[in-house]
Amino acid sequence: MSRFRERPYLILVLGLLIGASLIYSDFVVDDAYISFVYSRNLVTGLGLTYNGMLVEGYSNFLWTLLIAPFLLVSIDPLIAARSLSFLSAIFCLLVLDKLIREYNPGLGKIGVGISLSTVSLSSTFLAWMVGGLETLFFSFLVLLFVFLETRESELAEITSPIVVLLLALTRPEGLILLPVMVIYRIFLRGISGFKTLRSIFLFIIPFTLFLLWRYRMYGYVLPNSAYIKIHTNLQTISLASHWLLQFFLLRPIFSMVLALSFIILIKEKRLLDQQWSILMLIVGSFMAFILYAGRDWMPFHRFLVPLIPLFGLLIANAISTFQNGISRIVILTLVTSIGIFELVMSVSVYRQQITDFGRYTSGLIEAGERIKQTTRAESTIAVVDGGALAYFSERPTIDIVGLNNTQIAHHPEMDVAGYVLDFDPLIVQLHLDRLPSGEFVGSKDLGVNSLILRHPEFTSCYKLAYEKSEDPYFPFLFIRVCD
Asked: CB-hemisphere CA count at 13 Å for 28?
């Protein structure tokens, strides 16, 4: 409590975090339930499987394990995920508060509080605090890594590789912090290569054991989703570049202050200082990963969430540079407007998107529950949305997209429609558009929708199971009518 008495702005910042998060309370993504499927199967004795299929369709191993104990005591996994994410956000802000004051020792309480508020009011930060995925937990670990790596102590040098291990177990891209750590220690802190190598064995040994387990368990060294999503080419890089640019263009004042801070660091020749160089390494590494792996299809720029707290440090640097006269008033006004702008955008522009995502996921949940009530336990379903339908129906599930199916993921040339229909699924869910004539056409988001829709077996043996007109967010489900 003394921390809050000494820095009362923390109470305001945490209050803003709680209040603003209510705006995003409806936002939840279907992909969160993919991890929940694996967590539930783990605690019910089925192992880390996808409703009977041995495939690593999750890409957040540690997060999946963290959710499992909550399911063991019958706590809703979404409540568990949101609680863990909220705690991660709080710890993130507390660590960021300490780092801001260390990086900018002359910055007053108002400047620190305003800098923290730009993070706690960020739509990107808030949306993924409630979305159900591991994003905020991962982001906290990234900031914790920065905190430990900038300590001059033996304990920090030992614990930092452990944090990198946790990052790599939480998300595949967490592995990029390992070369960041090596470069930072050897070339910027001047730590000997032998000493650096000795400490990173705390990462290498357990992570190697994890890779061996993964290969023995699933037959591959990467999560199954990586083989579906990562196809680096010029188009991938172009789309990812546009995606990154969009984030900054949507936030002109935020981007201007970041650019100002960067210019200040260059002008004052502090860019290669130990404390700032690690930020540049991390930001550059994540940007490079996004260009390599491609943009994220989900809203609110999920892949950039780990960088939001680091951007908060850069904003604090801009404020601390201008401490007197009109320039201080101008910079404080600019930074304050960043939070106000994000709040206004959340309430107005983003509100419909939040609602639509929440209602669509709710529709999938309702459909999953209805399938469970009206089908036998052994009935197979085939789905495009692999999360809530699999979780709530508790039925053997074929993921048409391939995220949770090794055959589809590793054989892109195969006849996916024929493969899926060979399982004789009782229920098939597709992404379709309905013309005024009542005719269905496959949505453009995934070509396999049209392939299945036009397949002779589908046209002759499947009919619409539930009329969607009652609920526009209810998914298109087709039921098999042939024996």
From this structure: 25
Query: What residues contact 100, with CB distance under 8 A and at least 6 apart?
Result: 107, 112, 115, 116, 312, 313, 316
Q: Rounded to an integer, what distance in angstroms lies between the CA atom of residue 146 and that of residue 171?
A: 17
Inter-residue contact 405 to 398 (CB < 8 Å)? yes
Question: pLDDT per residue over 110-122, tens digit each?
Answer: 999 999 999 999 9
Within 348-432, where are the H helices?
351-374, 388-393, 406-410, 416-421
Instruction: Answer yes or no: are the C-beta atoms of 247 and 254 closer than 8 Å.
Output: no
Which phi-psi region, left, alpha or beta, contains residue 101 (left: φ > 0; alpha: ψ -120 to 50)? alpha
Of the listed ranges 118-127, 192-201, 410-419, the one predicted with least confidence = 192-201
Dihedral-angle region of residue 223 (phi above 0 means left; psi in -120 to 50 means alpha; beta otherwise): beta
Could you tell me if 170 and 141 are in contact, meaning their C-beta atoms sit under 8 angstroms apart?
A: yes
Query: Could you tell me if 67 and 395 are in contact, meaning their C-beta atoms sit under 8 angstroms apart?
Result: no
296-349: pLDDT as tens digits: 989 999 999 999 999 999 999 999 999 888 999 999 999 999 999 999 999 999
Helix (H, G, I), strand (E, B) or coil at 426: coil
Angle of helix 135-149 relative to helix 77-103, nearest 10 degrees, comes to 30
Q: Which residues pair with 432 in a beta bridge?
A: 442
Question: Is the Cβ–Cβ distance between 253 and 341 less than 8 Å?
Answer: yes
**C-alpha torsion sign, points 263, 266, 267, 273:** positive
For residue 324, the 8-state DSSP code is S
Tens digits of per-residue pLDDT, 140-195? Answer: 999 999 999 999 888 888 999 999 999 999 999 999 999 999 999 999 888 888 88
Gyration radius of the chain's alpha carbons: 24
Neighbouring C-alpha atoms within 13 Å toward the C-beta of 46? 16
> Locate tokens 């999503």: which residue?
229
Return the half-sphere exposure (C-beta side, CA atoms, 13 A cut-off) of residue 369.
7
- Residues 12 and 15: their CA atoms lie apart, in Å, by 5
Could you tell me the two tokens for 311? 């951007």
- C-alpha distances in angstroms, 102 versus 58, 110, 151, 378? 37, 15, 11, 59
- Phi, psi (deg, nearest 5) at residue 427: -125, 135
Write the CB contacts of 337 (distance below 8 Å, at least 6 apart in sequence).
Answer: 253
- Backbone φ and ψ for 382, nearest 5 degrees, come out as -120, 130
Nearest CA-CA partner of 139 in 149, 157, 152, 126? 126
Contact 194, 187 (CB under 8 A): no
Res 5 pLDDT > 70: no
